[in-house]
Structures are given as structure tokens and as C-alpha cells.
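Researcher: We're teaching a course module on how sequence relates to structure. For the next exercise, students receive a sequence and then see the predicted structure as C-alpha cells, so they can try to spot secondary structure elements on their own. Here is the exercise chain.
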Amino acid sequence: NHDENSIEVIKKNKVPIVVMHMPGNPKTMMTKIRDYDNVLLDVYDFLQQKIKELVILGVSKENIIADPGIGFGKDLDQNLILLKNLSIFHSLGVPLMLGVSRKRFIESISNESLPKKRVGGTISATLLALSQGIRIHRVHDVHEVYQAARVFDKLTNK
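Model: And here is the predicted structure for the students to work with:
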């Protein structure tokens, strides 16, 4: 959305692109939390439309990754609805990515204001996402989350 040449670079180099839901831009996304009709369906429809547009522009669907944009222009309740229902996004037909690392919604639940101390909440949300089949995660604390994911996978026979 912010670089008119990006699609051509992506197509030419056949590299993945992450399509993420974010109302507005980084400077405006949190100025007014959007009142969604249904946050789950609104985010789904947005991602579905973006995927369709990219395919029409010639981006291979195999190179598209979708991210519901946890924390981007959404309040606590909206984030929780998305997190509890991540599995619906599999029907988009592309790999899914999630970035919950140290997010403010963890502070809202745990009252932990220091982002570096939100590792436990990050791991908890990541395990919830793993239980719903999300396999690509953007995290700050790679070692801790990787260890938790490995143990989770072994315990759940994945």
C-alpha cells in the first residue's frame, strides 16, 4: 500500500508477501478504534479482498501470507475475538501469520506495563494460535517461544 513498486519487485523475485489487516496507517491506526460490524468477518473480508487483488495483479497465491493484525486498530475485546477464532482464516487458502509478541492486549489482561515482561502472555497467545494451526509467528523472544512451541508440538503429537 505504501510503495507502488513493491508488487513488481515481489512478482519479479517470486518472494512472499504478508497481507495484514490494519485500518489507516501506523500513525493513525490507533487514533480512533473502529466500530466493526463484526470484527471477525470484517477482517476476514478485508484479507480475502486483498488476496484477490494481489492474485489479479499477478502475485502467485502460493506467495501470499495473511495476518489478521492483532493490536493494529483494534481494542482488547476485538483482539480477543480474533484470537479465539483464528482458525476461520485458514479458509482464505494461504498460510497465516500472527504477531502477538509483547502486545498491549497482554498488558490489558495482565497489568504488566513493561513490554519485556510480557513474555508469558506472548507464549500463552502463541500456544493458542498454534492450537488453531497458525505456524508462522513474529516474536521478540525467539528462544523462549521456540522452546514453548516445540514442547507444545510434542505434547500434542504435532
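Model: If you want an answer key for the exercise: The chain is about 45% helix and 10% strand. The mean pLDDT is 93.
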